[in-house]
Design brief:
The protein is mostly helical. It has two domains: 20-57, no CATH class; 59-257, Cytochrome P450-Terp, domain 2 (Cytochrome p450-Terp, domain 2). It is built from twelve helices and three strands. The chain has a three-stranded antiparallel sheet with strand order 1-2-3. A hairpin with a 2-residue loop joins strand 1 and strand 2 (28-31). Bound molecules: coenzyme A. Coenzyme A (COA) binds at residues 110, 114, 152-160, 199, 203, 207, 210-212.
Length: 277
Amino acid sequence: MSAKDSDAVVQSASDWWETSIIDIHPGEIAIRGYEIQDLIGKISFPEMIWLMTRGDLPTPSQARLLEAALVASVDHGPHAPSIAIARMASTCGISLNNAMASAINVLGDTHGGAGQDCMVLYELVRFKIDAGIRLSDAADLALAETIAAKGKIIAGFGHRFHPVDPRAAPLLSLVEAAAGQGIVGGGYVAIGREVEAAIQRRTQKPIPMNIDGATAVIFCELGFAPPMGRGLFILSRSVGILAHAWEQTTAGKRMKGPMPKDIPFTYAGPAKRKLDR
Ligand SMILES: CC(C)(COP(=O)(O)OP(=O)(O)OC[C@H]1O[C@@H](n2cnc3c(N)ncnc32)[C@H](O)[C@@H]1OP(=O)(O)O)[C@@H](O)C(=O)NCCC(=O)NCCS
């Protein structure tokens, strides 16, 4: 092989993992062009998340909004399936990473990952507004289309435990304040509130916005794509998952099930019968 050919082979091997996120050479680490030693101690973790996922640093106000969403979602106690799973898994003789992975794996469309679907709905409303339809009609239409495609339960609204999710209002207030200062557009907070009203128009009962609906507003306002909404929620909830997995690990209990063993579960199968053979 000629020197030219072998250079081409090395180049094509280098291009195999092309990335614009990070550059590394012996003694050098640069993230999105910034040397790591210039970032350490100078930018916050939310700013680092933004830099990593968006390519550039956020403004301080954008970082504060992202941070608020991340702070709000960290934990919902052992009633949340992800947290209960982290704790149960920790008693099964697996390590912390396995316990965390087990919990993260259930952050799906109904639990924790609902923000992604909610962002898709908000964006659908946005498209309709951009096409000249007024907000309330756009929300009604988008809701009807979403229900026809995915069923009557709207992601980002309702909560099994809280009649009103205490995390939603402070998050929306922050977005409204940021919109007042021109930091974000404010269109999605109006959309979120209108979708909540549209759900009530359809169901004739209040089904308030939950944490996923509120963080979906923030992530849309900040320009994140819907799948990133789920990713960001998972980053936040991972903190709670880690804390609970570690607390349970250090508690030393072995093989803990979903409820105390003296509480029976309900059997709904056939009555006892004889095997006829
Ligand atoms: C969170 C959730 C599972 C709680 O459900 P729940 O309190 O057990 O409520 P139920 O399933 O008992 O439903 C009660 C009623 O409200 C309705 N409802 C509940 N959440 C609804 C929603 N998000 N959209 C439309 N209707 C909803 C149900 O259809 C049901 O109506 P019905 O009695 O006429 O059948 C449910 O609201 C949901 O799936 N929300 C969307 C997913 C989501 O955002 N998850 C994140 C939660 S933090």
